[in-house]
Backbone:
């Protein structure tokens, strides 16, 4: 089976890889590029553990073929913090104890950041519907929703000119 | 003087610091089960049965073996022959031969998805291709999945040699019923006859899955020296070690299990599926082998919790005092016996004072995967039936359902069903807090209903080991063996720092592998913060004693003249009275005072106390569609003392939502062909964020006097009450009793129509 050569940008770095025509972007991220922060919970688009950004859109990487990444811009959980500086949503997840096992957490954080990037002032209902594609079996969502609302408030503060 | 034992005020207990492993987990760096890779690793794949029940006439692997890149193939024949041996598996005692046959079928496949062969190859694609080249000759057999169907006399049998245990006489014919258990007190029949009011009804629910988001995965290497290294996420590395060693017939010390971060378990990762298979593949291939399940494998082949059919008759006097309960429950178990039926029995009526009861449990085998523990395993099913009946009885008598429970609740000194008196329990406090809470008296709109229920879970103690070591610079390391499934590193660090009198941030917690710390039972039974916490506190106290002795040496005084407070030694007598030495000072001079400072403590406490929970739920039922949505939810729980309240609330909220899913949506749906119709998250519908309101968690702190910081277990009991709570709310919203779960819109709509 001949492999496809793909050049793409991941968290700002140019990356190249070879992939089979049937491989998903999730497989390549985890197995070829060793970026295991993006998780696989289902492989069918139903859990959101594999959430990444592709050209600025939130997608399930298990539903994207690896070859489709050619020339595109990918953002993963590994790129959410700036160096050792956590993104506010990462910090509020910690402060609110919004993770128990932490397996769903990367997907939630990427999705929550995507929401806050486009809507800095979401209602609780908007947060709940935006995150409805992400399954968490541990927390019952309460603390996750609070963490995201809190991060939104913090980001609004930052954005308000003094 | 040294440890702050049984103090009422604490520096750190009850605070909410950031968990030690938090940053790794919010940045995607934490290494979970499926994330681990070993050098030169092969990828394995498992062939699973498409039939729910079939004899394996032959498995031909020749073509698969010839495929380039295939390095090893394993079938049931490669497993050592095992005498039946019962191993201690914590929440679920299992028969080791059953467990081995569940990892890989021998002779027969017993459910759709049952593993029967495995391949290791240089890539996943080659391994998958090789599976397609394995020829299996099946003799398909009749199958059975439903509980009542499996109990019928003419049901297809899983085993010709299964005779029901626990009957007065050994049955003449084999059946699918593995066990019957019963406990009685007083004269139930007579008491029911003379009761002022009675209710009798049947309640049913299908099996449900634990639903952890991380699928099972492992890497195993069987090294040339005969020793094995295993990397996997589980609820207990020591448990994995003992099961793997026993199944493969190797010495326990030759198996080293490295615990990876665990992406949820809820009881479902108290057993093993892949590790022995990967081990045998690795032995043949001479390279490390990784095995992973996909989501459909997880649903088809890993542990659901029992489905149930429960009959209840309940009687009370005119004042609402319960006089008798007759409970007969039947639990599914899948292909082999488990522990849920026993647990169902002791969780059935023990939270009320009832003079007369008869509780009978039946365990029923069928062509479903071998069941596994799920959070308070065995309790929610029987509790759903009992609490629902109690709500009906209260309505019949015109008594408020919370008052009905307050009249009957057990208090300290009353007897548990397993024969010891209750200690410092807080059931009554939970009920009274619920009654006084504004939620209970808030008004309801049209098509809305409110429900309540109450529950009990026994909890556990069990063996644990922890060590505390002081670094050369005075930093403090806690080393323990219980996987951190929901923030337990934080609670260990709090308890260690509280005991030592130092800052939380000065403590590092490591979850060690089985070669690096003494034995601990698995994380389960709501035991870790309680039992492993005791080991941590004890080890920290011993380290304090060592440091006092070292300080005495440095000061040249008697150890009796050295006190420990605020994280330092204080000289209280002699020439150096008033001087202090910090942990760092003592550590820096450790070499001249006796060497490194550390202590290991092993405990096996049985002075744990049970958990109690009372839940209140409001639902909105759409009369057009029958769809029920949760409008408001409040959970009350006797938590002992909360070491890290956020993670205690998290247990309450998460458990409540799993229970809500069980009540409203979740079900294993087997079709007529014995195949699972919904082996994916789209059709096995777990609650998502938009289904839910905030879950109000009200902690009732009634400390356990047997724990230095008052800990009771908190993780399991919150899943128990939601089933009856939600059903009660829907019943009140619609005026129709809800006795069969899940309460899907079509079911609710049908019941509303038949009433109208
Ligand atoms: S793994 Fe992609 S949505 Fe679940
Ligand atoms: S924290 Fe475990 S699945 Fe979300």
Residues:
């Amino acid at each position: 089976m001949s492999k496809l050569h793909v050049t793409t940008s991941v968290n700002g770095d140019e990356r190249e890889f070879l992939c089979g025509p049937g491989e998903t972007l999730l497989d390549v991220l985890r197995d070829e590029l060793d970026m295991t922060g993006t998780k696989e919970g289902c492989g069918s688009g139903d859990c959101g553990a594999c959430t990444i950004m592709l050209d600025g859109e939130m997608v399930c990487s298990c539903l994207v073929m690896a070859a489709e990444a050619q020339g595109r811009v990918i953002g993963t959980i590994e790129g959410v913090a700036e160096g050792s500086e956590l993104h506010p949503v990462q910090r509020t997840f910690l402060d609110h104890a919004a993770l128990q096992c932490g397996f769903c957490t990367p997907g939630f954080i990427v999705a929550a950041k995507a929401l806050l990037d486009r809507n800095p002032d979401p209602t609780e209902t908007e947060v709940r519907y935006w995150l409805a594609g992400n399954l968490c079996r541990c927390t019952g969502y309460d603390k996750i929703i609070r963490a995201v609302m809190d991060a939104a408030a913090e980001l609004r503060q930052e954005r308000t000119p003094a | 003087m040294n440890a702050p034992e049984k103090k009422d005020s604490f520096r750190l207990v009850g605070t909410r610091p950031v968990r030690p492993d938090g940053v790794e987990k919010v940045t995607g760096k934490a290494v979970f089960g499926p994330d681990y890779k070993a050098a030169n690793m092969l990828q394995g794949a498992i062939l699973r049965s498409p039939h729910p029940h079939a004899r394996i006439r032959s498995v031909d692997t020749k073509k698969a073996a010839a495929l380039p890149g295939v390095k090893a193939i394993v079938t049931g024949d490669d497993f050592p022959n095992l005498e039946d041996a019962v191993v201690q598996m914590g929440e679920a005692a299992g028969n080791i031969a059953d467990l081995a046959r569940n990892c890989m079928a021998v002779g027969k496949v017993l459910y759709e998805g049952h593993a029967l062969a495995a391949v290791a190859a240089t890539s996943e694609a080659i391994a998958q291709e090789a599976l397609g080249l394995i020829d299996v000759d099946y003799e398909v057999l009749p199958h059975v999945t439903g509980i009542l169907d499996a109990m019928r006399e003419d049901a297809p049998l899983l085993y010709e040699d299964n005779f029901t245990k626990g009957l007065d006489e050994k049955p003449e014919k084999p059946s699918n019923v593995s066990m019957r258990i019963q406990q009685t007190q007083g004269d139930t029949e007579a008491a029911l006859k003379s009761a002022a009011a009675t209710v009798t009804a049947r309640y049913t629910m299908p099996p449900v899955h634990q639903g952890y988001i991380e699928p099972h995965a492992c890497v195993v290497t069987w090294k040339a020296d005969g020793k094995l290294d295993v990397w996997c996420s589980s609820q207990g590395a020591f448990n994995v070690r003992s099961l793997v060693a026993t199944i493969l017939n190797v010495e326990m010390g030759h198996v080293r299990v490295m615990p990876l971060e665990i992406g949820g378990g809820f009881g479902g990762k108290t057993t093993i599926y892949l590790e022995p298979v990967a081990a045998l593949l690795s032995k043949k291939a001479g390279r490390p082998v990784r095995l992973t399940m996909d989501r459909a494998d997880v649903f088809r082949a890993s542990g659901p919790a029992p489905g149930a059919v429960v009959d209840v008759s309940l009687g009370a006097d005119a004042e609402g005092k319960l006089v008798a309960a007759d409970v007969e429950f039947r639990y599914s178990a899948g292909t082999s016996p488990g522990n849920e039926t026993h647990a169902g029995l002791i969780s059935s009526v023990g939270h009320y004072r009832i003079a007369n009861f008869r509780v009978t449990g039946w365990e029923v085998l069928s062509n479903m995967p071998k069941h596994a523990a799920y959070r308070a395993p065995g309790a929610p099913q029987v509790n759903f039936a009992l609490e629902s009946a109690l709500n009906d009885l209260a309505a019949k008598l015109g008594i408020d359902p919370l008052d009905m429970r307050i009249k009957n609740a057990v208090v300290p000194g009353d007897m548990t069903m397993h024969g010891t008196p209750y200690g410092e329990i807080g059931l009554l406090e939970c009920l009274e807090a619920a009654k006084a809470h504004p939620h209970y008296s808030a008004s309801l709109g049209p098509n809305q209903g409110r429900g309540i229920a109450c529950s009990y879970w026994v909890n556990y103690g069990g063996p644990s080991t922890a060590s505390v070591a002081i670094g050369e610079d005075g930093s403090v390391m806690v080393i323990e063996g219980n996987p951190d499934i929901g923030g337990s590193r934080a609670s260990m660090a709090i308890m260690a720092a509280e005991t030592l009198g130092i800052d939380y941030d000065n403590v590092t917690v490591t979850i060690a592998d089985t070669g690096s710390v003494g034995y601990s039972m698995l994380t389960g039974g709501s035991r870790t913060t309680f039992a492993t916490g005791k080991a941590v506190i004890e080890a920290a106290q011993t380290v304090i004693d060592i440091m006092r002795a070292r300080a005495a040496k440095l000061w040249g005084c008697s150890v009796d003249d050295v006190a420990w407070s605020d994280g330092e030694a204080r000289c209280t007598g002699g020439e150096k009275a008033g001087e202090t030495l910090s942990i760092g000072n003592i550590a820096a001079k450790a070499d001249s005072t006796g060497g490194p400072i550390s202590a290991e403590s092993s405990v096996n406490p049985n002075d744990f106390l049970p958990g109690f929970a009372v839940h209140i739920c409001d639902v909105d039922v759409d009369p057009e569609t029958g769809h029920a949505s949760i409008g408001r939810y409040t959970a009350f729980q006797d938590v002992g003392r909360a070491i890290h309240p956020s993670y205690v609330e998290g247990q309450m909220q998460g458990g409540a939502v799993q229970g809500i899913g069980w009540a409203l949506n979740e079900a294993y749906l087997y079709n007529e062909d014995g195949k699972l119709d919904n082996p994916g998250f789209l059709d096995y519908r777990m609650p998502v964020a938009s289904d839910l309101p905030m879950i109000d968690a009200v902690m009732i702190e009634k400390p356990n006097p047997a724990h230095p910081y008052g800990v009771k277990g908190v993780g399991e009991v919150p899943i128990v009450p939601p089933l009856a709570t939600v059903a009660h709310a829907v019943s009140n919203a619609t005026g129709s009793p809800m006795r069969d779960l899940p309460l899907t819109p079509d079911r609710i709509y049908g019941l509303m129509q038949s009433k109208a």
User: Anything to note?
Assistant: Confidence is low (pLDDT under 50) at residues 1-6 of chain B. The first strand of chain B starts at residue 42 and ends at 48.
